[in-house]
């Protein structure tokens, strides 16, 4: 994992890093005739929507991120914020529902 010089200040526990830049992600070549089997509609995302994906466990989302996401959604009337499912979805949904700033009303989470 790459960390900045001040990374230790972000952790209460001692940060131990291995030498090098980890993890190594090697691209995989598609096998056979690959076709996407899921569409946006399978996740309740309307056709024509612009999907902004936060590929992070939803319970790790912080207010500063939500503020940035709200600013994006205010400027993009077709924007949809997509969060990953989390064991703490109810807590995350409550936090998002309580967040002011999205003119279209509070977002909702669908299970996954």
Summarize this entry quickly:
With 112 residues, the protein is of the alpha+beta class.
Q: How would you describe this structure to a colleague?
A:
Helix content is 20%, strand content 12%. The C terminus is likely disordered. It starts with 49 loop residues before the first strand and ends in a 15-residue tail after the last helix. The chain has a domain of 74 residues. It has a two-stranded parallel sheet with strand order 1-2.
Main attributes of the structure:
alpha+beta, extended, 112 residues, 20% helix, two-stranded parallel ribbon, 12% strand, 2 helices, disordered C terminus, 2 strands
Write down the secondary-structure element order.
EHEH
Shape by Cα distribution: extended
**What would you report as the Rg, rounded to the nearest angstrom?**
18 Å
What's the pLDDT, averaged over the residues?
76
Provide the helix percentage: 10-25%
- The secondary structure category is alpha+beta
The count of strands amounts to: 2
Helix segment tally: 2
The largest sheet, given as strand count, sense and whether it forms a barrel, is: 2 strands, parallel
- Biggest sheet, spatial arrangement of strands: 1-2
Strand share of the residues? 5-15%
The CA-CA distance between the termini, in Å, is 28 Å
Low-confidence region ranges:
105-112
Helix and strand topology:
Layout: E1 50-57, H1 63-75, E2 79-84, H2 89-97
Parallel strand pairs: 1-2
């Amino acid at each position: 994992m790459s960390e900045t010089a001040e990374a230790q200040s972000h952790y209460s526990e001692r940060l131990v890093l291995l030498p090098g830049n980890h993890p190594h992600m090697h691209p995989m070549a598609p096998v056979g005739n690959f076709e996407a089997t899921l569409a946006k509609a399978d996740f309740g995302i309307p056709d024509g929507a612009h999907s902004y994906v936060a590929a992070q466990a939803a319970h790790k989302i912080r207010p500063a991120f939500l503020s940035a996401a709200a600013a994006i959604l205010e400027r993009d009337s077709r924007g949809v914020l997509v969060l990953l499912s989390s064991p703490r979805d109810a807590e995350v949904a409550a936090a998002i529902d309580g967040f002011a700033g999205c003119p279209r009303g509070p977002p909702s989470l669908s299970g996954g």
